[in-house]
Amino acid sequence: MSRPAALIDRVVLAAGVSAVGIAALASAAVPLGLWRPVVAVPGAVVISVGAWWLLTLLGQGAPPDEARPGEPGPSGRPATLATPSTLSTPSTRATWATWGLPAPVLTAIIAVAFTIWNAVLHSQHLVLRRDPGAYALYTQWIATEHGLPIPARLAEFGGPAAYQVPGFTLGAPAYYEVLSGAGESLQAQIVPQFLVGAPALFSYGWWAGELVDRPWTGMAVVPAVLGGLALLAFGSLTSRLIGPRWAPLAVLALGLCYPVAWVARSTFSEPAALLALLVGACLAVDALTSRQATAGWVAGGVLGLAALVRVDAVREVAVTVAACALLTLRGNRAAAPIAGGAVAGTTVSVGVWVTMSRPYLETVSSSVIPLLVATAGVIVATGLAVVLARVRATRSPIAAGIPASVDDAPRAATAGAHSPGGRSPRVAVLAALLAATGVAAVGLVLASRPLWLVVRQDPNSPSARFVASLQRGQGLPVDGGRMYAEHSLEWVAWYLGWPAVVAAWAVLAVLAARTVGWWAGRSPASPPWLLPATAGFASSVLVLYRPGITPDHPWADRRLVTVVFPLMVLAAVVGIRWAAGWLGSRWPSLPQVGLVLAGAGLLLVPTLWATWPVALLRTERGELAAVEGVCRQLQPGDAVVAVEATDDGRAQRSANEWPQVIRGVCGRPSAALLTPAADLPDAVRRLRALVEAAGGRLVLLTAQEDAAEANRVLDVATGGPAGQGAYSSRTSLGSLVTVEDRKLLTRRPPGGARLVIEVWLAR
What Å distances lie between residue 99 and 23, 77, 135, 556, CA to CA? Predict the structure, then answer.
């Protein structure tokens, strides 16, 4: 391969390995209060140098040169996904000229453009309403305070006696209140909801931004950088599986997909997870091709440690282990180490979850525990299957048709279908047809679900109440129990178009048939695409079957970013190549470039059409200034409590959005009073007495969109209008009118929505 291609590939692989290494470093340093630049920066340098050295030692980072189907490439590696069969047909390598630029260079240009595009449009989501705000505040805390948990400062609210005040809480969404002890020895701490991996990576942007007095901006652009690296990793995977000249098309299609760009504009964990999973896939392909056990351990470790960034990564580990079992039975030395590395990395990740994020795990236990149990079951079942097959193969390797070792593989393959344990060609063809039909049937079931299924959730859950409020606002039938997950495949088509989805699913059906053919043929050489295709398909089906997320858009579309969109784009590009090759071989007079461009248009035009209305959308502008304005109004000794005035005492914007902002950014103790309006004045009086006894001053905070409602809430809380009683001073900190993402249930977002942020303080 060319020198630029090798360099770019090695850089992106090292970046992915370093990212999970940094997440592991933070998992050890943050609980000890050591997450400081003096530790984290040298640690990152050592990890990056080690990753580069390890990849060099293993010979990783060199995707195959393009080869004719069924023939080894110039690098000696097996042929890529060039055609739908292993028969030699005219190559289409000349059809994708990449405008005179080397394909890796063009891929890098697209990735850099993606990074700049989304870094410029970065969000300022700091007020805690959804995950980006939670990740931003998490990052700010560990980057400036260097450790966890967060002190709750209960003593400044009067100590344990504060919990005798009805509705008193120190927690907020994504920031759990953890109590220990009892009576006068009661203590409270705040534990962030999410995993440490993404905030650890964002911290480097914070520290870099501090050098130019722009820490929030430095943090906010890191997701775009991670997204650009992830696109480079996707290009490397495409080069390995299809050919280098097809990487620019695949990278362009994925980068134009709006949900992929959207998560790169805010502090989401998806860009980091996407980078780790794609780099792990590249390393796994290389390991299986070279049959290096050590390379397999590295690849599996990256996939397993991706769970330090996102809990969902365990799902990919489960399906990877199952796919590796097939490859192990074919004598590939790297398959078992890949599975072992993935299990080891996942074990480390789960240990970190339990240590640092236990309240979060308890909250999502209904989904996490079944996922972990299913993963453990898959690991045990596949392990037993491999052991039993090995025992059988050891007794009679040729009769069983399973190579006991790599050295036995050629002999077992020669025995073929004529051995006692072999399969007849007719049975193999039937099995391949059944596999292809099964994949197609899965696609038809997913596509047709809206016609015969309504996916539901607990109608009394907070998510159901939120969905019901959206339905009322959008003129839909009010049924908060709906999850709209039956439309998940339609969500994919919103951004890629139905032609791409259908083509991708057809390719996956063909690959299922080829997998069965490979298995029945007893070939000792595994196709390089087998592990990414089988694991990616299984994981994508699970995601599409049960997205497990609040179903408003673009929010719900982030579930598709890490696996579904990359798989669909990759398979669609394979379909374009196959179609161009097939048409070109039947009608040589057809211009190959025209065929490829026509196929590329079917993929890119719908994607660009969906992204264009929101291509320049920037959300949450001005929130940093709003937060700084609130902090300036607070004084030493202030203890801030967020108040609502609802009949049921349920938290609304005041109690949800501001306690952690006040605590983490402003550096003042904060809490909330979640009690019915009738009991609120008495609760405020009791809490004020405790705060004053502790030497402080209670400040009430409410976040409303207009002055009349803000004054009503404060009137209720203080028991009288402004100018009377203890709270005679009320301050409006100004009204910020900005833009947030739309929250649509039945269609993709055509733009943003108006958002008003106004904060009132009463002393």
Answer: 39, 27, 40, 37
H-type alpha helices, 59-121: 103-120
User: Which residues neighbour 365 within 8 Å (Cβ) at sequence distance 6 or greater?
Assistant: none
Give mean pLDDT, residues 690-719: 91
pLDDT-derived band at 103, boundaries 50, 70, 90:
confident
Nearest by Cα to 539 from 342, 262, 331: 342
Give residue 73's pLDDT: 41
* 429 backbone φψ class: left, alpha, beta (φ>0; ψ -120 to 50): alpha
Q: List own/partner pairs for 92-97 with CB under 8 A and 24 or more apart.
A: 92/577, 92/580, 92/581, 92/584, 92/592, 92/596, 93/66, 93/243, 93/245, 94/592, 95/580, 95/584, 95/592, 95/593, 95/595, 95/596, 96/245, 96/246, 96/248, 96/249, 96/593, 96/596, 97/593
pTM score: 0.92
CA distances from 209 to 146, 220, 222, 266 (A): 16, 10, 11, 16
- What is the C-alpha separation between 247 and 243, in angstroms, rounded? 7
Cα atoms in the Cβ-side hemisphere of radius 13 Å centred on 628: 6
Q: Where are the domains of the chain?
A: 3-116+217-614, 150-193+621-762
Question: pLDDT tens digits, residue range 571-627?
Answer: 999 999 999 888 888 888 778 788 889 999 999 999 999 999 999 999 999 999 999
Would you call 13 helix, strand, or coil by DSSP?
Answer: helix
Cβ distance 494 to 610 under 8 Å?
yes
Alpha helix stretches (DSSP H) within 702-746: 707-718
Helix (H) or strand (E) holding 649: none
432-477 confidence digits (pLDDT tens): 999 999 999 999 999 999 999 999 988 888 889 999 999 999 999 9
The edge-to-edge listing of strands for the beta sheet with 150-151 is 150-151, 187-192, 175-180
**Three-state DSSP class for 606?**
helix
CA distances from 538 to 194, 258, 535 (A): 26, 24, 5
